[in-house]
Amino acid sequence: MAPSVLEVPSGAHEFVPIPVQREAAAMAERTGAEPFIEHKSTSVIHVSHTNGRLRVEVAFRRGSRGWQQSGGRLLKDGKPQECMDVWARYNELAESLPPTADGPAQLPVLPPLGEDEFPTEIQHSLALLRQRLCGRSDVAVHVGQDDKGRYILVMASPNATVHMVFETQRRHGRKGAKPAGTDPIRVVTADGRDLTDEANGKLKKALSQLLAAPPGSGGGADAGGAQEAQAGGPSSRKGTVLRL
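The structure assignment produced for this chain is given below.
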């Protein structure tokens, strides 16, 4: 946990501007931990929160209008993450990310919903996916819902689990669904490797992990045939349509 300390490199910058204080208070309320406030220079202050492998940084700069926020970013294992909403992405990663990079990753277990409980877009995607999998008995498919109210199309095999994430929306007065804006496809292998970044939002890559032969099985012809059947229609990681 990050210490509740104001780091002052030269000992001359004790003052913490009101906008920085407000951001620090909001960050503490959101995370339950006191943030770290660091004076980078006489005109730059950073407010940050560290939680295991995740770190949120918000920068403030002093200009002609006083102190104003100039940017924010999320880092995982020290690497900046591309995301539209820093805190939404932070919450997603905090739920599934193991404490250390060497630890096994896992996706949340979501109980299945009744098929009359989700929008037409989900029903259509589910039907196409089942058709594409050709009734494989080693792959279980269902639709669940996470704690944010998003619909999750869950695919699980002995080799991996894949989550296709859909956000709800209202169109023409009815409830609909669309692929999530960030990481619409998440992939974790049976041995705990998070391959979401490698899949890059592409269903073809996710299915290659789902349908690959489990370690030690020798990779029979059935697995190879299934991978051939998945060709075509990859999705965009930040697109609005997932073609199955």
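Interim note for the steering committee: Residues 1-13, 218-243 have pLDDT under 50 and may be disordered. The first strand starts at residue 6 and ends at 7.
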